[in-house]
Amino acid sequence: MKKNSKNIIALLLSFGVCALSIYSLLNMPTKENNSVNSISIQGEDHIELIPGDVVLINLIVSPSSSSFSDFSWIASWSDGQDGDVLDYFFIDFPENSKRMARIGAITTWSDEVKVLVTGGGEFTYFYVSCPYVDVTNISLSDNSMVFKTK
Amino acid sequence: MRKKGLLFVTLLSVFTGADFSYQNPHYSFPGVHVLNATGVSNGLILNAIVSPSDASDKYVTFTTSDKSKVNFIRLDDDSIKVYAVVSFSGLVTITASISSYNAYCSCVYDNGGFSQS
Questions:
Q1: CB-CB contact of A101 with A72 (8 Å)
Q2: Which of A26, A59, A75, A138 is the most exposed place for a label (fewest CB within 10 A)?
């Protein structure tokens, strides 16, 4: 009788441990959701702008199931020179997620801006330029001759 | 009818290699630009065409050789409306400048011999 009750208690304990294990497994935070294996830029890694241009840059995050979005975007001159690139170039985030950035040129610059994106232990980068384009010619027409599109 | 005309122009473009596009100003008309009456409302619009189209500097400076005869109001970076201030004889030169480039055109006044009130 005593032995039977011990067996029952042991059985109940086993069930309890088993149920706890299954519960823990089901409620364990999925590691993949926040992990990052690699990041890259959608499109060209050299982007040429003209002043006033605004373009959206999307990050491709692998695995696609990853929900990590706290990326850091750091802009600097590609040759490492001093000076604030943000006098010439801007970068902001139109959505809460830092998986997408908006970049634009305020004025032209002669060098390239390097934008380094880091997060989740991974990094990628791309270059942005906005070269000055010289005038090569000017001519005149009047509105009786030209259908102007603006 | 309109489609036939378009087809004709397209075929003509194909056979002659000519560009009949009306979308972009492909040619320059330096004048003589004829002003038929005085006043801004009787003026004509002058467009400066800067090449290349993606040039960084787009602001064109305009000057008139005699603003007591022909003056202008600016419309945008590369366009002005020139008008006769008074009836006049001879030529008035309008200069468009950007960087080290200049373009010139001439304006005359001709209202067909009618006096204007």
A1: no
A2: A26
